[in-house]
Write a structure and sequence with these properties.
414 residues; three-stranded antiparallel sheet; 12 helices
Amino acid sequence: MSITRRVFIRNSALAVVGTAAVPSFLARAAMGAAEAGARTKRLVVIFQRGAADGLNIVVPHGELQYYATRPSINIPRKAVIDLDGFFGLHPSLAPFQPLWQQRHLAIVHAAGSPDPTRSHFDAQDFMEAGTPGMKATEDGWLNRCLHDLPRSAQRSPFQAIAMGPSIPRILSGVEPAIAMNNINDFTVGGRNAKPSPVATAFEAMYDHSSDAVLHGTGEETFDAVKMLRSADPGRYKPAPGVEYPKGRFGESLRQLAQLIKANLGVQVAFADIGGWDHHVNEGATEGQIANVLREFSQSLAAFWTDLGDLSEDTVVVTMSEFGRTARENGNRGTDHGHANVMFVLGGPVRGGRVYGHWPGLDQSQLYEGRDLALTTDFRQVLGEAVMQHLGNTDLKEVFPGYENQPGKFLRLLG
């Protein structure tokens, strides 16, 4: 079979482009999926590390108390991108406005982890493990959600991807996952070449696998990696009109889009973006938060557009370890808080709506008298994505200790 650069499935049809030999691993997987009429469902999780200020991201501009508690760092009504007359987007999130209007983007406010910790390390660990308050959990929920996914005849080595130098807590566990800091460095060593650390780890994963399907396919797996290399990733061009912003996050999403568009079988993926811990001089329409929100929204909007038709089967969920205090502090910043905001973007998303119960910002309504109160557990949002989108119905295994029933879902996904 003759092919080049990429094998991919679009609308259950096998399309091939070019002139190089297709590795048998990918050829069988692609043909099997086409024959079964399969379409890969993908879940992409984005972590905003540092505790993002949800109140200045999705602004409750219809609540007077918001302006009373933030005299110098509030987002003025005239600058807010209004969504529904009460909530609005920070102006640096302008790239999200068309996604909202097209009803691909939904918002869940007053969401997050119920654990009261204000420690970045503990809160991130709890959210990535999916077990708030339990430090003994050994694996991550995104890894566990792979256990009972509907399986195709071939399981791709690219099924679980983390864009970064190492496997994050959220993807640690028994299911194979790959950390990829840079596609261009994802090399495969031949007889006369020194294998890269990634290639060595990849080979070891398969040598020690007890899975009958995976074991012994190391050579074909390396063929798959070689095929990725043959696509000349350094010259990858996003879709026409798409421009990713400079920086680590934009580059991570650009490369993730490349992996997805190459139809390598990506089902779950993870990327993170730092720079959200604004204790001093947070800023308002300009400044620190405006800058990181601009990078955040431009990168995600570019990723969404770059996927093209593949966005129909992709869901992106964002989260941060906790929010910030309702009141600004004496340094024109905010301190560690409680509830936050989550974005859910995707083809099957019932967007154009803010979900969840708004608890209010009056003193009597604040958590511990200082923070936005939590009304939606983050596992409720993620559980719906895992079950309704990926098809894993065993939520008790994915989120042990949490009663995550379909009847409690927010109905974010259609």
